[in-house]
Amino acid sequence: MTSMENVVRRRRSVTFMPASSVLATLLLLLVPKVMAQPVEGPCTIAARDLAVPDCSRCHGEGGVGRATDGYPRLAGLSAAYLERQLRLFRDGERQNSEMGEVARQLTDDAGRALAACYAGLATPKPDDYEMFEASFLATGEHLASVGRWADNLPACNQCHGPQGVGVGEVFPRLAGQRFEYIENQLRAWREGHRSGDPLSLMGTVAVRLEEADIRAVAAYYASLPVRNVEQDAQR
Superkingdom, according to UniProt (predicted)? Predict the structure, then answer.
């Protein structure tokens, strides 16, 4: 067979490649690009429809929070609690430059809509806290469930409910909340950097917490199964 015949045969094989093979090749090229597109959550879409800042930029898509930056989980928290916190940020009763700026851009209706949206989200699985020893978690559980009355330290569950499920608009769910966020907020209460609690309950309690207490309580609550407050109320 001559070299010219080889060229012709190769050209024919390319020219007459089955259409199905061409389609399959195109799909393989396109699929990674399609899969790479992020899926927007319902609250991201709601924020866009309301023409307000997108909470997911800090709190993560689906309201899962961000451990590295200390942003809390919002998914499954009480709508009444979330709405109240937005009002506190807006009115300057709770101080945070980022949240204050965002809250002042929200009308009451927009804040209510976003709070309801995040309250209705499926709650994420807790982080793996096996890095903490069982005795450390046990200390946190004891403080949360019993307290330490020798230091006039009441149990956290007296206000936050059994296993930190949350109570009403004032006492949020702690179960499954991020360790870093709980830790940071307890320090803020203790050092007087956070306010807005009724009768200064949290400030009074937090000043009696040692650093080890804070970490133990934060680890215990972070290790608990996450529960959706709104869905629990409907059962």
Answer: Bacteria
Instruction: Return d(Cα 233, Cα 76) in angstroms, integer.
Output: 11
Query: Are residues 64 and 26 located together in one domain of the fold?
Result: no
| Residue ranges making up the domain that contains 27 | 3-36
| 192 and 169 in a common domain | yes
In this predicted model, what pLDDT tens digit does every residue of 185-217 receive, in sequence order? 999 999 999 988 888 999 999 999 999 999 999
Q: Is 156 annotated as a binding residue?
A: yes
Beta bridge pairs of residue 29: none
Same domain, 26 and 46: no
**201 touches 159 (CB < 8 A):** yes
**Number of domains comprising the chain:** 3
**Residue 160 labeled ligand binder:** yes
**Binding residue per annotation — 159?**
yes
4 is in an annotated binding site: no
99 assigned ligand-binding residue: yes
What CATH number has the domain bearing residue 74?
A: 1.10.760.10
- 3-state SS class at 77: coil
Asked whether residue 58 is marked as a ligand-binding residue, the answer is yes
What is the pTM (predicted TM-score) of this model?
0.79
The answer to whether 55 is annotated as binding is yes
